[in-house]
Design brief:
single chain, alpha/beta, 7-stranded parallel sheet, 6-stranded parallel sheet, 16 helices, elongated
């Protein structure tokens, strides 16, 4: 019998190119655990160099069949939107579960819905939920037990981006092309600074809209084709600034991985000032802007070298190698593996 703990991942869509935090996590767990991945659907944009094969599951029976054959010691998933399903699968397979929350699932969910999900988070078979520090007051107010919530920085493969060599002088933005990202503002910003090169790396969703909007404004931005995560470190080094836009009305952009990736790459960071917690994330090594004109004044100047140097160190807070133990510490030790949840956690059966 293997001494490695068996971890069953249950995900919405593996391996989505805009969800590299999941692959970063798996990368630093794969050698120490036996991992099996179940996904509800295929990705829209696939990360081609993902580490693990996966199985698409669409029914409760399929989950029970595949998961039962694997015999997991613990289940793990991402997003609060999967809490009810994780709870149900945990009971079906008689294994506890953990979950990593993100931003959209907290900021983009009603308080009533968060409260409804809290009963699954507070159940005995939930070992804990990793979440960004700023989300904890939101979740506690919605009824989540404080001792189930573990504060954790974003899951970034900092080592892949760490590079203190000189940078180029262009301006970039990257991320999923969603309305909450307000990428139209990046194009407006570029039109104010025609002497600078602006590169946008949008992923899926509303890219066609951005292409049309860019054309309407005279094409001030180079809209780049989707790149695999392994290609992005070199792209960061071509730039002096990352301007991370956000919709000022929606305010649902969280703590983007791109900020830590940019800091590790020596790129200056300028982020839409949509919430006070973003100041904590920037850690004094970047700028917040309140308007496009404000952002133009900031990025028209060189990024201060002092902040650049401090940013290299600050990025390490998000290094997956530094905080992956927060997840591992929740999981049972091999000697405990196979112990089933208490009878109280077996009482209700919910549909997958």
């Amino acid at each position: 019998m293997s001494e490695k703990l068996k971890v069953l991942y249950f995900l919405e869509r593996y391996a989505q190119i805009s969800e590299t935090y999941i692959e970063n996590e798996i990368k630093y767990l794969a050698n120490r655990y036996m991992i099996r991945i179940l996904s509800l659907q295929n990705p829209d944009l696939r990360q081609v160099d993902h580490l693990k094969p996966y199985t698409i599951v669409r029914t409760r029976e399929h989950v029970l069949e595949v998961g039962g054959d694997f015999g997991p010691d613990v289940l793990h998933g991402h997003y609060l939107t999967l809490l009810e399903r994780m709870f149900s699968i945990s009971q079906m397979l008689q294994a506890p579960f953990t979950l990593r929350a993100h931003s959209f699932d907290v900021l983009g969910t009603s308080r009533a819905q968060l409260a409804e999900w809290s009963k699954y988070a507070n159940a005995e078979n939930c070992l804990g939920i990793l979440t960004f520090p700023f989300t904890i007051p939101w979740l506690v107010e919605a009824g989540y037990s404080r001792n189930k919530l573990i504060p954790c920085w974003p899951v970034v493969d900092v080592a892949a981006f760490a590079n203190r060599e000189p940078n180029g002088d262009a301006v970039m933005n990257t991320g999923a092309a969603l309305p909450k990202k307000g990428m139209e503002d990046f194009i407006r910003l570029a039109s104010l600074l025609p002497e600078h090169q602006f590169d946008l790396y949008p992923l899926g969703y509303d890219v066609a809209h951005l292409v049309n909007f860019n054309r309407e404004l005279g094409s001030p931005v180079n809209i780049m084709r989707p790149l695999q995560p392994s290609a992005m470190p070199a792209e960061y080094k071509r730039h002096q600034w990352l301007v991370y836009t956000a919709n000022f009305e929606m305010k649902t952009v969280g703590w983007p991985l791109s900020v830590a990736e940019a800091q590790a790459s020596g790129v200056g960071v300028c982020v839409a000032n949509i919430r006070p917690d973003l100041k904590d994330y920037l850690g004094g090594c970047g700028f917040l802007y309140d308007s496009i004109e404000d952002a133009a004044r900031i990025v028209a100047q060189p990024f201060p070298e002092e902040l650049r140097q401090r940013g290299f160190e600050l990025a390490s807070r998000s290094d997956v190698r530094r905080h992956i133990h927060l997840l591992e510490d929740l999981w049972p030790r091999p000697a405990q593996a196979g112990s089933s949840p208490s009878a109280a956690t077996k009482s209700a059966q919910l549909p997958v």
